[in-house]
Amino acid sequence: MKGLLKGTRLAWNLAFLILLVAASFAYAMFQGGFVSWFLLYSLLPFVVYSVALALYPLKKLRVRRKLNKTEFQAGEPLVCTIEIEQPFPFPFFFGIVEDVLPEKLKNSGSAKIVLFPWWKKRFSFQYSLSNLPRGSHHFETVRFKTGDLFGIIEREGIYSANNHIVVYPPFFEFQYRPQQLSLEKDAGFARTRYIKDVSIVAGVREYEPGDKLSWIDWKATARRHSIMTKEFEQLNSQQIVCFIDRTKSSSFEELISFTASFSKAVLKNGSKLGVVSVGKTKKVFPISNHEHHWKHILYHLAVADCDGEDEFINQLLEELNKWGQHSSIMIMTSHLHPSLIDKLLAFPKPRHVTIWHVTKAVEKPRRDQELIDKLRRHSITVRTVDAGMFRDAAQRVGSR
Questions:
Q1: Phi and psi (nearest 5°) for 192?
Q2: Of 97, 166, 235, 277, which has the fewest beta carbons less than 10 angstroms from its beta carbon?
Q3: Helices (H), 236-365
Q4: Around Cβ 11, how many Cβ atoms within 10 Å?
Q5: Burial (0-12, 13-18, 19+ Cβ within 10 Å), 345
Q6: Could you give phi then psi for residue 118, rounded to 5 degrees?
Q7: Could you report the per-residue pLDDT of 363-400, keeping only the tens digit for each?
Q8: pTM for this structure?
Q9: Parallel, antiparallel, or unpaired for β 154-168 and 71-73?
Q10: Do residues 267 and 293 make contact, with C-beta atoms less than 8 angstroms apart?
Q11: Taken in order 114, 65, 129, 58, is the CA torsion positive or negative?
Q12: Which parts of the chain span the membrane according to its record (predicted)?
């Protein structure tokens, strides 16, 4: 219907131009003289251009979108180039090019510009978007609009140009030491010794302070021009199951960011990680420590929605009972609820549970502190993580 209206409008505009030329010609014939004929001949080039523009096959323009990359971390800039190529040169007086952005990216910047291509067969423009929000974003269409000098003829084309980017949550690096988790007397975690088998080399990594000189891989160091340390097999690795509470919350983005940082640190340490993400839908990742396992978890954290109501509280006890007794349970939540506390207290072995409470509140509500004290009395560790102070939380994990 919309296309039919555009076609009808274009036909009326063409008819108006023809009537305008006919009127000018009739005026010149009856009036005579230099002025009347000058008006007619001055009008003809503009009318011819308008008619040619109306008949130009705008649909045959070839439009391509080029991105600087397809995977980003939240906050990184996106640089996009829109390239337009004509089937044959046509003098566009102007062109308005707009990249139709996904809904979540519309606040990240402008993707619209006015160009003056004239006889150029190929023309392009570049724009950038900053502060990309976390998520999976699809670019689908580019809009090109042009017209004549009088504004009588207006043409618009919409072109399919599909691109897909993934914006991962921001995360930071820190060293995770599982044997240091029991910082409180009532934490209930046994200190597990992690002994490296120096006879089995699993790989290499960059040198970190504290590594022995005998662990340096000199061949890898020479190849990469950076000090590389041998990575050894671990005789004993901890199994951690991370439960993500996707209940609606104003601190959800901070929760996702901290969960990504924590998960990366756990896997980098060599421990095995499982993830149970509960919101309107549930996503479960089995316990593993392979590289592709981390990629799958990170992608889920990129696209996870804060869409839960009471699903997490209702399913928590059932999910806890599915995992082995030797797994350490980490619950990532952005708010404490009495019903959640009751579920945890009903868990047969609460000493394996640690709650990471991620919040933006500067001053914690008194009720939250009361719930935290209640949990700690039942040997459940609760760690409060303030937004913007993740590194302080990491130091509490990584050191004494």
A1: -95, 125
A2: 235
A3: 252-269, 291-303, 311-320, 338-345
A4: 11
A5: middle
A6: 50, -120
A7: 566 677 777 787 777 777 888 887 666 655 555 554 43
A8: 0.71
A9: parallel
A10: yes
A11: positive
A12: 12-30, 36-56
